[in-house]
Design goal:
With 660 residues, the chain is mostly beta strands. It has a domain of 146 residues: Leucine-rich repeat, LRR (right-handed beta-alpha superhelix) (Alpha-Beta Horseshoe). The protein has 2 helices and 56 strands. The strands form 14 sheets. The protein has a 14-stranded mixed sheet, with no helix packed on it.
Length: 660
């Protein structure tokens, strides 16, 4: 029974009408995102939540207009009962003229976005217009504000064709990007009542005027500030360089965004700058000279995104936060130093992602977290020293960089090594001082690195799937005495073509037998080193299960013997890609064989003894487990098309070999 129509549910659907059944109690106005064919909406009269009048959807008492169909009409008079126009109510519609009702109080976010409104008079009754309400109305050339509003929200008139804006006395604040990307806007008149302007609220090169008693100031560089020049709001004229006065403590969001001619920012001596907000210098592609003041505590999201000419950044003692994508794409950035950082500091996701020239990274002892993708794709970064204060390294944090050595300082507070944190670091060979505090090594953590050996930290309890996948140089894997390791994921040694030995001298959870790693009572074989020289392997009757991917890629194995009354379950891909494997027997005790167990075992041509004659069991071996049809036939029945005839290896031979 349909009860809810969620956002984007009918995205780009070319429908002209829609009917809402009685039980629908939730309707997202943007469910038709990208569709401009809808002409009318109808509704079951017994629906307790919604009502329809003239093809337009309202709440039951018609106080909220929920959805105006995109292709309904070019002119519309909103009923007198309506007090609220809902989120995305008219979005992307053909409406050109609208008459507001006398009781209207609120217009929600994006209500008229991407419509064809030409001019707009906001009634005095309206007190609240939410973000983006008239964004991208590219036919809108004039707006008159009512007396009920006190603020203009973020993005409210962004990307319109307004030519002049006169802000009335009742408005005290204008949000971020409220009139940004308005290419025809040449003049803005502000009242004396304005106390707050958001970053990039107007386009550059606009003529802004305000009375002498306004709480704003404009310097000869055409930089707009608050009255005391504590907050730098925006720059109104493009130039190659600017001097920031010592009074400034905050640079507002998008203040210098996309100033592609800007090459230099100079901060006056003694400046107490604390915050550089989001997108402040976004896309300043020629900015090469900037010395961050020691007083800065935080950098906003993308504040220096794609500043491709910045070469070095030295952070000061007050730093506490570098936000998401802050320096992402700064492809000339060579040196990043946190050595003066005296306060606990976090580095958010993607902060230095794609800084392909970064060679020198110095992290201070006060860095507490490095989030996901933070230093990913830093193609010149060769060495990293992890400070003892660092508690968290996010997924992909250093992935796909050229790091050759990672050194952990002690005593470390590190608990987890996250998924993919050092994956694809194809030059990483040395991990120095791996902390004993680490409890979890997550999936793909060291995938495709060049580490030659690995000692599991004593406090580690779990290692995730594919943790060492593709570590082609690893020869030895050690679980030290008293190590707390209990859980080992699947495929952790996939592609470890040199791993010939697993060591586990004294563990409460594991034991080594015949080169393989078992659980403590030897009832479950967990994994076998892919590069082991052992060619024949015989299970003992004590073994009851083989874990998934246990023998994955063991290319030296020729024969495997499973005794009667032993193994009952073989996990998925357990013997996959054992390319030399020519013989294995499957006794009646084996009840469950998972998928892809024999995938890639191209030498299992014939002579495989399968005692279970059940058609369904054998069918599953072929269709799910990857065993070929001919493998269960006598080798004498196979035609000469097979170059190598296969002869089953006798049980007695296998037992003698293992004993030797």
């Amino acid at each position: 029974m349909l009860r809810s129509i969620e956002q984007y549910a009918m995205q780009s659907c070319k429908v002209e009408t829609i009917f809402l059944p009685k039980n629908v109690n939730s309707f997202a106005a943007n469910c038709f995102e990208g569709s401009r064919t809808l002409k009318t909406i109808s509704c079951n009269p017994s629906n307790p939540t919604f009502s329809v009048m003239d093809g337009v959807l309202y709440n039951k008492d018609k106080t909220t207009l929920i959805k105006f169909p995109a292709n309904h009409s070019t002119s519309f008079e909103i009923p007198e009962t309506v007090t609220t126009i809902g989120f995305c109510a008219f979005i992307s519609s053909v409406i050109e003229n609208v008459k507001f009702p006398p009781k209207l109080k609120r217009i929600d976010g994006y209500a008229f976005a991407v419509t064809k409104l030409k001019n707009l008079t906001i009634p005095d009754t309206i007190t609240d217009i939410s973000g983006g309400a008239f964004a991208s109305c590219q036919h809108l050339t004039e707006v008159k504000f009512g007396t009920g509003m006190t603020y203009i929200s973020n993005d409210c008139f962004m990307d319109t064709r307004l030519t002049k804006v006169v802000i009335p006395e009742n408005i005290t604040s204008i949000g971020e990007s409220a009139f940004s990307y308005c290419p025809n806007l040449k003049e803005v008149v502000l009242p004396s009542t304005i106390t707050s302007l958001g970053g990039s609220c107007f386009p550059t090169n606009v003529n802004i005027s305000f009375p002498s008693n306004a709480k704003l100031s404009l310097d000869d560089q055409q930089i707009l500030y608050d009255l005391d020049k504590i907050v730098l709001i925006m720059c109104l004229k493009k130039s190659t360089s600017y001097i920031i006065p010592e009074t400034v403590s905050t640079i507002r969001s998008s203040a210098f965004k996309d100033m592609t001619d800007l090459t230099k920012i100079e901060f006056r001596s003694g400046i107490t700058l604390k915050m550089i907000e989001s997108n402040a210098f976004y896309g300043c592609s020629k900015l090469s000279s900037i010395e961050i003041p020691n007083s800065v505590t935080s950098f906003g999201v993308r504040s220096f995104y794609n500043c491709a000419q910045i070469k070095s950044v030295f952070f000061g003692s007050k730093l506490t936060k570098i936000s998401t994508r802050c320096f992402e794409g700064c492809t000339s950035l060579d040196t990043v130093s946190f050595t003066q950082c005296d306060s606990p500091c976090t580095i958010d996701s993607y902060a230095f992602n794609g800084c392909t020239s970064l060679r020198t990274l110095t992290l201070s002892e006060n860095i507490s977290s490095i989030d996901m993708y933070c230093f990913s794709n830093c193609k010149s970064l060769e060495r990293v020293n992890i400070p003892s204060t660092l508690k968290y390294i996010g997924i992909y944090a250093f992935s796909n960089s050229l790091i050759s050595q990672v050194t952990f300082s002690s005593p470390s507070q590190m608990v987890n090594l996250s998924k993919y944190s050092f994956s694809q670091c194809i030059h990483l060979r040395d991990i120095v001082g791996t902390p004993d505090t680490i409890k979890n090594i997550e999936s793909n953590c060291f995938e495709s690195t060049l580490i030659t050996s690995f000692d599991v930290p004593i406090s580690t309890t779990s290692i995730g799937n594919y943790a060492f996948r593709g570590c082609s140089e690893m020869t030895v894997f050690r679980i030290p005495s008293r190590c707390l390791l209990q859980t080992i994921g699947n495929y952790i040694f996939d592609g470890c073509v040199s791993l010939s030995k697993i060591e586990c001298p004294d563990s409460d959870f594991f034991v080594i037998d015949n080169g393989a790693l078992f659980n403590k009572d030897r009832s479950n074989l967990i994994c076998f080193p892919p590069a082991s020289s052992i060619t024949f392997f015989c299970f003992s009757q004590n073994v009851k299960s083989v874990s998934s991917s246990a023998f994955y890629g063991c290319k030296s194995l020729v024969g495997i013997m499973i005794p009667d009354n032993s193994i009952t379950t073989i996990g998925h891909s357990a013997f996959a890609y054992c390319t030399s494997l020519k013989y294995i027997n499957i006794p009646l005790c084996v009840k469950n064989i998972d998928q892809n167990v024999f995938t890639g075992c191209n030498n299992l041509h014939c002579g495989i003894v399968v005692q279970n004659t059940s058609i369904s069991f054998r069918y599953s071996l072929v269709t799910n487990s990857g065993l070929s049809l001919t493998s269960m036939k006598d080798c004498g029945l196979i035609t000469c098309k097979h170059v190598n005839y296969q002869t089953p290896v006798s049980t007695s031979y296998l037992y003698v070999f293992i004993l030797m």
